[in-house]
Every structure is written in C-alpha cells, then in structure tokens.
Specification:
By secondary structure, the protein is of the alpha/beta class. It contains ten helices and eleven strands. α3 links the parallel β2 and β3. The structure holds S-adenosylmethionine and iron/sulfur cluster (2 copies). The site of one iron/sulfur cluster (SF4) has 11 residues, from α1.
Amino acid sequence: MDWIAGKHRPFPTHIQIQTTSACGAACQICPHPVESPNWPNGLMGDELFVHIVSQLQGRAIEYLCPYLMADPMSDRRIFDRVEALRQALPQTTLEMSTTGLYLVPKLADRLLESPISELRISSHGISAAEYATTMPGVDFAKAMPNIERFISAWSAHKPFKLSVVCLWGLWPADREREIEAFWKEKGVELSKWRVISRAEQVDLTIYGEAEADPTPYHEGKQAPPYLCRHHRDTQWLHILSDGRVTLCCMDYRHEEILGDVREASLEEIWNSEAFEQARARIRGDAPAGPNFLCDRCEYHVSRSVHEQRALEAAP
Ligand SMILES: C[S@@+](CC[C@H](N)C(=O)[O-])C[C@H]1O[C@@H](n2cnc3c(N)ncnc32)[C@H](O)[C@@H]1O
Ligand code: SF4
Ligand code: SF4
C-alpha cells in the first residue's frame, strides 16, 4: 500500500469538506467550542462548494465526509449538498456524523431519505449527568428520545450503515460495560473510540484518572520514521469552509494551512511543495519546528509501533 512506502497518490482518495464551521453541542472533549469563536470562516458559499465538487467529479474518491471539525447538520443546505455530492460521486462512501441535538423529527426524516452511505451518532454517555460533562450543549432529555426515535425509524429499512460513537476511556470499565449493553439492546452498532487530547487541545484530566490505554500507540514516539496512523497526509484532503486546505481534522487553530482552493486546483495543492514539506515533517525527514501539530498528536507514531499493532491485529 502507498502509505507504507510513505508515498501519496496523485490525487487524494479521502476528502473532508467543511460546508459549515458551526456546531451547537459545545463538547468538552472537542476543541470546537473554545477555538471556533476565533475562526474567520462560517458557512461555505454555493459557488465554492460547486467549484470543489466539479474537481472531484470523475475522480476515484473512496470516502467523503461533508463535514470537518464542526457539525454537518448545522448546515441548512446539507441535504442539497449531499444530493449534489451523490450525483457527482455515485460510488463514493458518503459518511456523516452528528449528535442527538440535530436529530429532531423533521431533520431526521430528511436524513433517512438522503443518499448517504453511513451515519454516525456521537453520544458520549447515556445519562443526563454524562452528557452534562461531555456534551453540555446537548440537552439529554431531548437528544436521547431523538436518537431512539431515529434508530427505530432507521430499523424499518436500514437505508444506510448506522452506528453510535461513544468515546472510550472517559468512564470506569463497569460503566463502559453498561453503555455497551444499552446500545446492544437497542440493536445498533457501537463504535468505541479511544478518547484523545486532540493534539493537546482538550483537557482530559477533568474526567479523572484514565484507564490504561490498551494499545501500544502510547509508546508511539519512540523513533523515526514516523507516520500519521490515519494517513491524513497521504490519503486525505481537508477543505475548510472558506476554501483553505488544512493538514487535518486536528487543526482547530489553523496552524497548518497548505493551500487555498480559491487560488489553486485541488490537484495542485495536493502535489504542492507546502504539502510535500508537511509530509516530510510528519515522517521526520524535515525539521518539524517548535510545537508542530503532529508532534502533539496521539496519532503521530513511530512506524515500528504502527506495524507492530498491525501484526498483532492480524488474524
Ligand atoms: C469532530 S466530530 C464532527 C462531527 C460531529 N459534530 C460529531 O460530533 O459527530 C468527529 C468525531 O470526532 C470525535 N471526537 C471529538 N472529540 C474527540 C476526542 N477528544 N477524542 C476522540 N474523538 C473525538 C467525535 O465523537 C466525532 O465522532
Ligand atoms: S465533537 Fe462534534 S458535536 Fe461535539 S463540539 Fe465537536 S464538532 Fe460539535
Ligand atoms: S498525526 Fe495527528 S495532527 Fe498529524 S496529520 Fe495525523 S491526525 Fe493530523
């Protein structure tokens, strides 16, 4: 595979488009509520959206998220935009992720009819007290009935893949088992994502002593060569709502801007010197400079650790 050789393909296969920078959930586990008031960008204009989609049409895009560091359901035009993406990219996996805040019946019905491939519902707990600590902008008393109603309507036809995402490592193990049983009983897949500091941008100490990370990744910064364990630099392209291209979905402070769709094509940006330099800094082949985003990120690991993990996971 290309990423093993540290090479990137001629054009990205995975895309994130920030059609809006808004989100009302105010999660404590996410840098959005602290950083987004400083952002100069808001809703993506139609002209820019069409300009981007026209460059993706005909390309072998495997996976596309019409969101980035915000919530797609806070974009009123999201359903039209998803339709446009589906027309342009009939084979691509279109994935959306949201919370119970936005799954009110009117929006839920439209979502069920939209041509997405996958929906993830973020729910970091199953009680009002847990929501108050993790997602204080989401009213549990409304959100959980929204989610339950959605799952029930989805179950009738299962028009796309559905899962609930719950961050793992926040609660004691016995509580995590209860959370697991809760979603199993509802007949929906649960994705247990290890909580991270998002490049030292969220304070996880408020959740107390974390359970030991069972993966070898915490040993990750042993020695170069390094890689981004999610291949954000070699497979993915991340476009902000004003057209700037950022290194990845951790860049809540816009530290690593690599180009601008209003000034250059996606292909030019992807193959630019700025992008190549970022890849070299990630690999450890070029000086990273002080406080480099990836150096603060849990997903930046020694290749040896990553390969060890892959070997352990092999059947
Ligand atoms: C940034 S959100 C954007 C989409 C949408 N607003 C949502 O929350 O589902 C994308 C994913 O990042 C996850 N996430 C947020 N903070 C995280 C953290 N500290 N560690 C791991 N994943 C996190 C969320 O749970 C969500 O599944
Ligand atoms: S994790 Fe998602 S829902 Fe929560 S604040 Fe961040 S973008 Fe919003
Ligand atoms: S290592 Fe972290 S910050 Fe760097 S590209 Fe990957 S996900 Fe982004």
